[in-house]
Amino acid sequence: MGFNSDNAIANELVLLADNDYELYKARVEPITKNLERKLAKGIFDSAKAAKLVKYLMDDVAKKYAKHYGGTFTPDDRRLAAKIWVEQFLINHEVTA
């Protein structure tokens, strides 16, 4: 993936998700544990994982809009979810 403004916006969402304590405890940790179980069972599906993580990115975007204004498009949130899943796989030393 090359760098462009869409990636920068999506990466901002990923950073917000990983650095907001409330969201991390309530959403990121359970999602991570769920995906780790799927990896262990051998039933992990990147597309389904990205769909699940998009719900997290929706929550991040809502919280951001509430506190700072502005919006993230659905494409921004989908790209952020894909980036988050890619980082998850890298952190778990899995090649997709």
Number of domains as seen in the coordinates = 1
The N- to C-terminal Cα distance equals 14 Å
Helix content: over 70%
Beta strand count:
0
Average pLDDT number: 91
Q: What does the radius of gyration come to?
A: 13 Å
Series of H and E elements = HHHH
Structural class: mainly alpha
Largest sheet: none
pLDDT < 50 runs, ≥5 residues: none
Number of helices: 4
User: What is the beta-strand fraction?
Assistant: under 5%
> What best-fitting shape do the alpha-carbon axes yield?
globular
Topology:
Layout: H1 5-19, H2 21-41, H3 46-68, H4 74-91
Structure, explained:
The structure is a single chain. The chain has one domain (5-91). 80% of the residues lie in helices and 0% in strands. The chain has four helices and no strands. The protein has helices at residues 5-19, 21-41, 46-68, 74-91. Helix 2 packs antiparallel against helix 3. The radius of gyration is 13 Å and the shape is globular. 21% of the residues are buried.
List its salient traits.
single chain, 96 residues, mainly alpha, 80% helix, 0% strand
